[in-house]
Amino acid sequence: MAVHITLPESRKKSAVPDAPKHLVTPGDVITTDTGYMRGHGTYMDDDKLKASLAGVVERVNKLICVQPLKTRYNGEIGDVVVGRVTEVGQRRWRVDVNSRLDAVLMLSAVNLPGGELRRRSAEDELMMREYLQEGDLISAEVQAIFHDGALSLHTRSLKYGKLSQGVMVQVSPSLVKRRKTHFHNLPCGASVILGNNGYVWVSPTINDEKTESSGGYEQDLEPVPSTDREVIARLRNCILALATHKLLLYDTSVLYAYEASRQHQVKDLLQPDIAEKVADDTRQRLQMESG
Amino acid sequence: MPGDSRRVPGPQDSRSPHWYGKQPPQHQETGTRQDGRADHDLRPVYLHAGVVSQATGSAYIELGQTKVIAAVYGPREIARREEFTMKGRLCCELKFATFSCRRRRQHMQDNQEKDVSLIVLQALEPAVCLDRFPKSQVDVYITVLQDDGSALAAAITCAAAGLADAGVMMYDVVTGCSVRQCGDRQLLDPSSSEESSQEGENAEDHGMVTVGLLPSLNQVSALVLDGHLQQQTAVQAVKTCISGCQGIYPILKDCLVTSTRRKVPAVDPTSIRASTDGQNGRT
To answer: A127: which of A37, A45, A165, B59 lies 20 to 30 Å off by Cα?
Structure first.
């Protein structure tokens, strides 16, 4: 087995034109003008508007807020998330979604196997562990937000449910754009779920007919052929390369990164200089497309 | 007595080599200190945020030869929730590395370290907006890699930089500074030889003061006094510490601005179009 060893080297600054930004630290005075509304990341002290986060000041007309560059995921209703079950409780599962608090998946918010529509009984409660156990990965949609900020999830559509074979990549939540759909069947031979919470799931192509009858709880544990495995590994390395260079993740950018990475070996994509090259190629191609 | 029972202690009649070593010379009477500083000079400070990649936020500080690293995790779910609370929780754990002091430290946290952790927690709590993350907790883990004096002050500053790097909402950062009173002399930011020197032991004033300050709000969040000080001298020492803390504040600000600038994502045209779709003010 070949091992790749490099000495530490200082990180190169990417050659991106720096727009002058207003950077603040907690306690900094943003403005003393009282005409502004205060947004996220600010607080009023006497007449002064001060920052409570380290980040970039953003101004939209009369609203001033501070955008931190590293936050936990803050859920919105309708977001698609990928999460891991951490606890099986009374009529609910607790799911870790990279947020401040674990999200809650109520028993009444899941589809029973076979697609039955009925009241959940005591037997269903006892069988909860048969459906989802601690450590299982699921894809779900945010249904509501509790008062303290915890999310309430549901898997009421057949495209959500337990995830079977694939690779999970953790990136920053700010890199995943909110779009119409987060489930993509890429032409290169794999499927990708871009969770809004920063958890991305890469798996072999999902056949739509298979999931009709299962109700989202059957796990497909058939062996995955090695060509599919290579595609999935390449996609995972491309997503990590894009995330390291702070490029937004959506189906087009992931596809362009995959095509740009074709000339390299899959394991070479983990090296920082090759990852940077792939990210640069993707960025250039996206800029050309947008004109 | 809780201790590490798996370690084999040395033989009973072994003696530490430090007893037989030459004592370092005490500071001269000429008015300068051992390292050539004036009485009220701070040591050169190096502060860098974002050093621990797996933590939510982190910082590394060097105050002369004192080296401290802090890692912040969270806000995350409290593992065992006993009572319901609408305020978040801040947990602080400080540890001196076993090789950090002149006498080798234990591997487990001893009483002095637990005490210092509590002081750092009391220094940081007023600065953090705890009501912004109910039912969650933020963990701060501080490790002192080398203690050459003012370790508590360095730990406070380092932990505050780590919290700001982690994106935890704060009213203000916290800076720490300490002063050693030897008789009539007031030494700002003492090194470890100055901290443990016996000069002026028989004088009226002999002690050490450490202050944690919120600089832009000008509020003191931690005050520790060790030793014997008269009232006037103590007040004077606290004032000196506060001016020392204000002196460290611009360094802390600069460090956070630099680390924020490093994290700013690449500007690509597609992202500008998406962000004007009305999704402002949120990450």
So the answer is: A165
What DSSP character marks residue B170? B
Q: What is the ipTM of this complex?
A: 0.70
Note whether A38 contacts B: Cβ–Cβ < 8 A.
no
> Mean pLDDT in runs of 10 for chain B (283 residues)?
68 75 60 84 94 93 96 86 81 95 89 96 95 90 95 97 94 96 91 83 84 95 93 94 96 92 60 38 39
**Rounded to an integer, what distance in angstroms lies between the CA atom of residue B140 and that of residue A25?**
19
Q: Which residues of chain B are within 8 Å of residue A149 when distances are taken between CB atoms?
A: 133-134
What is the least distance, in Å, from the CA of A82 to any CA of chain B? 17
DSSP-assigned letter for residue B191: -
Q: Which are the contacts of B54, defined by CB distance < 8 A and separation ≥ 6? A: none
pLDDT per position as a tens digit, A196-217: 999 999 999 877 655 554 556 6
> Roughly how many angstroms between the first and final C-alpha of chain B, as a whole number?
49
- Quick one: closest CA in A to B219, which residue? A27
pTM of the shown model: 0.79
Inter-chain touch A26–B267, beta carbons under 8 Å: no
Per-position DSSP letters for A172-225, written without gaps between them: -GGGB---S--EEEETTTEEEEE-TTSEEEEEEPPPTTTHHHHTT-----SPPP
Radius of gyration of chain A, Cα coordinates, nearest whole angstrom: 22
| Chains A–B, number of C-beta pairs less than 8 Å apart | 136
Q: What does the DSSP assignment read for B96-116?
A: E-TTSSSSPPPSS--HHHHHH
| Closest by CA position to B179, among listed B235, B217, B219 | B235
A245 interfaces chain B, CB cutoff of 8 Å: yes
A111–chain B nearest CA distance, Å: 27
